[in-house]
Design brief:
Elements: H1 2-19, H2 26-51, H3 59-74, H4 83-107, H5 111-130, H6 132-135, E1 141-142, E2 147-148, E3 151-152, E4 160-162, E5 165-167, H7 169-193, H8 195-205, H9 207-212, H10 217-243, E6 245-246, H11 253-266, H12 271-290, H13 310-328, H14 332-351
Antiparallel strand pairs: 1-6, 2-3, 4-5
Helix pairs in contact: 2-7, 2-10, 2-11, 2-12, 3-4, 3-5, 3-10, 4-10, 7-8, 7-10, 8-10, 11-12, 11-14, 12-13, 12-14
Subcellular location: Cell membrane
Keywords: Cell membrane, Membrane, Transmembrane, Transmembrane helix
Region (Disordered): 347-369
Length: 369
């Protein structure tokens, strides 16, 4: 019954998201698309870091594998595979890359795993710059549009018009992002609520206790790394479709730090928290770039003034958000929202009038003569 109620509450939100392309312009749809892609990757990192307790600084590497894997598999030069097949293979390729690293992830933990995954970022960036035939080198490479069943998620000629609204690349990719995000939401929550999620939590809390209960610690930690890599590969492919051209400099250490910020701000071990953190971290620099002329101490893009650029200002703000979250809400925005809902429910319960059942009238005692 509770699941039905939750689905009923989500229905208005789903309808609102489905109707947005008919009412907002391409800028807001682009922000939403990048936020959904980031939420997919953050859900995978939350599963790895929040649930399994493994620190990873190499998430940008697996995003790059998904992005460049799709661009090479579906493009020229490359095999020129059907784009839908290339998307699936790019996700599997990212999972395979995580599988090659998973034996180390199954045996190393804490800061040592973080340093090991950090090496992946620098190694991957070097490969992206030098493997010109696959990645295009410093200038990057264009991304072929996704085509499914003859429908292309890009601008086409003649233009598609739905209910009087022209549907270009942003509108079409919006619905693709919604579908992929919904798939991520369902699968990630299924993992967290099922036996694998309980096993990963046991491993995170105490490896010794988990091993005593029969949990194969190394196998579950390795599996968490592979699954997280596949989510990152899917996010990277969706980002590539949104950018339409990818360059190596985007997939650097700063991107990995951004994803860590997402799961910390949103709340570790929660898909909803990872989504909230992804929206915050992704949308903030884009909004500050657009409205830089109206913000104090923020310089417009391309200006040479002494003010802070919008990207740097956004990093300062969500850096401050991380500090505030760690100090006052260690479980992130998701935990804060959960506590607020509990307080509101408690206030409603207290304010509701008590309806005690009326007592039956006392019967008079019978006097015996």
């Amino acid at each position: 019954m509770s699941d039905l109620l939750k689905r009923g509450r989500l229905l208005p939100l789903v309808l609102l998201l489905a109707a947005l392309p008919f009412y907002v312009d391409a800028f807001w749809l682009r922000i939403g698309l990048f936020a959904m892609a980031a939420a997919i990757g953050a859900a995978g990192l939350g599963l790895l870091a929040g649930t399994a307790g493994q620190l990873s600084l190499g998430h940008a590497f697996f995003l790059a594998v998904g992005a460049y894997g799709y661009a090479w598999l579906a493009g020229e030069p490359g095999p020129g595979l059907p784009p839908a097949l290339a998307l699936v293979l790019a996700v599997l390729l990212a999972g395979a890359a995580g599988g090659l690293f998973s034996p180390l992830a199954g045996r190393v933990k804490g800061i040592y795993l973080g340093v090991a995954t950090l090496a992946l970022v620098f190694l991957g960036h070097h490969v992206l710059l030098t493997a010109d035939s696959v990645t295009g080198g410093f200038n990057g490479r264009s991304v072929p549009p996704l085509t499914v069943g003859g429908f292309t998620f890009a601008d086409t000629d003649p233009e598609l018009v739905v209910l009087g609204v022209p549907f270009g690349a942003e509108e079409r990719l919006w619905y693709l992002g919604l579908a992929l995000f919904a798939l991520t939401w369902v699968t990630a929550r299924g993992i967290l609520r099922g036996r694998p999620g309980r096993a990963l939590v046991a491993v995170r809390d105490s490896e010794t206790a988990a091993a005593v209960m029969g949990v194969d610690v190394a196998r579950y930690r390795s599996a968490a790394f592979v699954v997280s890599s596949m989510y990152a590969g899917l996010a990277g492919a969706l980002l590539a479709l949104g950018f339409r051209r990818i360059v190596p400099d985007y997939f650097g250490l700063a991107l990995s730090v951004d994803y860590l910020a997402m799961i910390v701000i949103g709340g570790l071990g929660s898909v909803a928290g990872a989504t909230a953190g992804a929206v915050f971290v992704t949308a903030l620099p884009l909004l500050m770039t657009r409205y830089a002329d109206h913000l104090p101490l923020v310089a417009a893009p391309g200006s040479t003034g002494g003010a802070v650029g919008p990207t740097e200002a956004a990093r300062y703000l969500y850096g401050a958000a991380i500090v505030l979250v760690l100090l006052y809400a260690p479980d992130g925005l998701h935990g804060l929202a959960r506590r607020l809902r509990a307080r509101l429910a408690a206030r409603r319960t207290k304010s509701a009038p008590a309806t005690a059942p009326s007592a039956a009238p006392a019967r008079p005692k019978e006097h015996t003569p």
